[in-house]
Structure formats: structure tokens, C-alpha cells
Specification:
Length: about 80
């Protein structure tokens, strides 16, 4: 599956229990930044994808940008800046 987001949005890989994920979602919502959330515990193959992106670590939130790059636990400001670039 291709999880690359549309321009101006991100794909966020997360879990329900991740405090950093919940914080980032609240910040993105407050700034009006669109995202698609993928729970790596519910969608087959996504935990392995996150591990591949993060050098073997299952770290969330992992964010995919429209240009195909990724960031691990980015700030809302970093997300906003990278989407504007």
C-alpha cells in the first residue's frame, strides 16, 4: 500500500496509547494541518514499515510527507515548515 499523503497533508503512523502522538494530533488540529492517522497496531504491515523508516525501531509518531520523506516525532512547527517548503 502507498501511504504517501496528498500535498498539504501528512500521514501519521501512531498508536492509541502514544502520548506524543496525541500531543501532535492536538497541535495539528489547532493549526488546521490535515493528516491521515494510521494505527500501526490495527493496519497490517504498517508496524514493519515504521521499523524500516526508523532503522529497526517501532517509534511513533512517524510522519510521512507528500515528497516521500519521513520524520520521527516531529514538532507541529517542523511539520508546518516542511509542508510549506
Amino acid at each position: 500500500m502507498d501511504f504517501t499523503p496528498e500535498n498539504g497533508t501528512i500521514t501519521m503512523f501512531s498508536t492509541t496509547w502514544c502520548g506524543y502522538c496525541n500531543r501532535l494530533k492536538k497541535q495539528l488540529d489547532a493549526q488546521g494541518i490535515g493528516y491521515t492517522e494510521i494505527n500501526i497496531e490495527e493496519v497490517d504491515g504498517t508496524a514493519e514499515l515504521v521499523e524500516q523508516i526508523n532503522g529497526g525501531n517501532r517509534t511513533v509518531p512517524t510522519v510521512l510527507f507528500p515528497d516521500g520523506t519521513a520524520a520521527t516525532n516531529p514538532s507541529a512547527a517542523e511539520v508546518k515548515n516542511r509542508l510549506a517548503a
